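User: Need the bound-state model for inosinic acid:
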Amino acid sequence: MLQTTHPEAVARMGGRPIGRVVFTAAQIQARVREMGAEIEAAFPVDDELLVLGLLKGSFIFLADLVRQIRRPLQVDFLSAASYGKNAASAGEVRLVYDPEAVLEGKHVVLVEDIVDSGYTLNRLLPLLRSRGPRSLEVCALLHKRLASGLVTEPRWIGFAAPPEFLVGYGLDFSEDFRHLPFIASLGELK
Ligand code: IMP
Ligand code: MG
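Assistant: Bound-state model below.
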């Protein structure tokens, strides 16, 4: 594994140590190119394609991904807040920013930074499906628990993620580290 002693990395971290680099910028770029080509080939070119980014974590991934898709498409974002993951109110996902784009009749690709429990997707997908898209697929950069019982598994997955807390390339820890050009681990999850 790479040590994160690269001067640029250290500068971006404000001198704080991070565990290790899990996916380098070059590895990410190569994989994003492949995923872009797969999405490009997946839908008839005359059909409408809407790439919908789940904020905030997907912003860098989406920006790189859409530039690798050589066909007409539109981009929009949504932002969701979930409440009571372990409480009696579990099941609530509220859109705090609702996309302006019309989903009806379009192929919609929802772009997610990382799927962990799948809770967010399981709650969000029925809501989006109710808006009548022609198809609804998920593209996740990282997937933590590939064997989890997700209602809908992502059609595209960048990398299987280790059971560690990951930051960078859009992923945050308390809003820090989103701007790292690589993905790093803050350590193993207990
Ligand atoms: P889920 O609903 O349990 O699948 O959680 C998905 C969301 O949790 C992601 O969109 C991230 O915002 C956040 N998340 C899960 N694991 C990590 C991680 O390792 N680093 C940063 N954010 C994470
Ligand atoms: Mg987050």
